Amino acid sequence: MVKKILIHGSGHKAISWQETISYMKDQKNILCPDLYSILNGQDATYENLYTSFVEYCSRIDGQIHLVGLSLGGIIAMNYALDFPEKVKTLVVIGTPHKIPKVAFEIQNVIFRFFPKSVFKEMAFDKKDTFALGNSIKKLEIADRMQEIKCPVLVICGEKDRANKKSVYYFSENIENVALCMIEKTGHVVNEENPKELARILNEYYDGK
């Protein structure tokens, strides 16, 4: 069976997928890498994180289904562009098509006033969150969207205003794409509406 790899965002950990997975079929073939763990002690830059993810996927035989939320969606798209023969399907959730540089700068200013304890529930500690945010601003993949050839499902919460525009960008620039807007749901779809997300994913994979 084709493995499904679920990639969390920077504000959450791998455990954030737990409830969604509990409603999904074929659970034994679902993997949830912890982004902090796969870095193996390296600096938390996007380059190191992406390289670590590439190495993680290289240990999996055959094709894979990729599902990414926010930062996880960016990593998944990046991987699908670089290794098209490896990716059978791609699902991106609450994912921007272009790195919101200004938003990252504002976020970093706000984060400076947060105590370190706030970051315990996030994927990275305070220092690593800043490092990742600063390094990812250099990433440019929007102009490569038309190169994605595998089937793509774009999911977005109805209340996720920051990423709604990206949904339409994806629809216009990816050849084999399907769109799904989840009502009464914000950015963190896997935690806010896990049962509905699982239903959508189960239905999507039934056709693959």
From TrEMBL:
SUPFAM superfamilies: alpha/beta-Hydrolases (SSF53474). Residues 5-199 form the AB hydrolase-1 domain. It comes from the Bacteria. One of its GO terms (molecular function) is hydrolase activity. Keywords: Hydrolase. It holds the Pfam family Abhydrolase_6. The keyword GTP-binding does not apply. The keyword Acetylation does not apply. PANTHER family: HYDROLASE, PUTATIVE (AFU_ORTHOLOGUE AFUA_2G14860)-RELATED, MONOACYLGLYCEROL LIPASE. This is Alpha/beta fold hydrolase. It comes from Blautia stercoris.
